[in-house]
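Exercise (ungraded).
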Amino acid sequence: MDTIVEFDQDLMEKLTTIAGEGINNAAIGFSGMVGRKIEVSSPRLELIPLLAIPKIVGGLEDDAVGVYLRFEGDMHGQIMMIIPHHKALELTDMLMSVENGTTQHLGSLERSALGELGNLCTSFFLNSIAKTVGASFRPSPPAVMVDMVGAILDIVVATAGGVNEHVLLVHANFMDGPRCVETDFWIIPDMKALDILLNKKPAE
Amino acid sequence: MNNPISLGLGEMAVTRNPDDVLAAYGLGSCLGICMIDPVTKVTGLLHAVLPETLNISDSENPSNASKFVDRGIESLLAAMTKEGANRNRIIVRIVGGANMLTAPGLTSTFDIGTRNIEKARKTFQRLNIKIAAEEVGGHTGRTVRVYVADSRVTVRVIGEKEHEI
């Protein structure tokens, strides 16, 4: 039988701290990839009822880029990183170290670069969480998709299981000088994962 | 004048107002199920999320019916009949059911889209109602719109204009 976890204020505060550390670590990975210091804003964490996702996101027909991966081990779950399409083009410019506005189309090379970035950010994010809670897990290779926001979010919905589930949304802004990329991380932990986050003591 | 009515996850709507345009935006693995009675103009759209209930608490809650393909179809049909539609005239079109994950190792695990399509076909077969048109499967998201005034059903995929099915 699944463990029932109450999303009370204490858990949300705990998760916000863990997510904050995870996002900071993701920024370190991002910086390493582009060879420059990438700053990150303090992340905002929200608990979203599964079926309310479209209402919160809006613009379901808008183009976006999604990077999805699963993690397994002591904890199971999925992470979807979603970036608006025009921001993904800017991000590609950042990754390729070319002027803003150079990338007009996301071909296989650009998708591969974004996949690598998503992989890196989410892996650094997960590593930080693993260290904080003293658990270990392995991420799957990333899947990159360019499609409508609603269609990308359907993966989050479909993989979450029951329609009464909740998912965690972490908003973060990655900044490279004047350039800013708003990124949403949708996290779908299983109940066992949340139980570990609640009960494990931080690693020394 | 068009009056767009956007259906969220697990929602359905029935109308006969000729100004209304029912829409489900950015369907990925979800299925948009359109039912139209061309005589009375009673028109319905269901935005189903999953093929069937996965746990007891979901199945016990009647408000969850439209979230699932099987129970959602039955609910939509009942709501349309109540509005004056004749089930023998109902024209069905289904849109969506894509498999959005194409990475190795992930594809087969979560192919909810294919399961949604199969469940819809089986449910309509059981109800003895033919599906007139499908634009389903593949790996791209779709927006479906149903125009009550002239019973048109259109689909749009990313980077393209909407087309009629």
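Further reading is listed at the end of the chapter. For now, observe: The CA atoms of residues 43 and 172 of chain A lie 5 Å apart. The domain at 9-199 of chain A is CATH 3.40.1550.10 (Chemotaxis protein chec).
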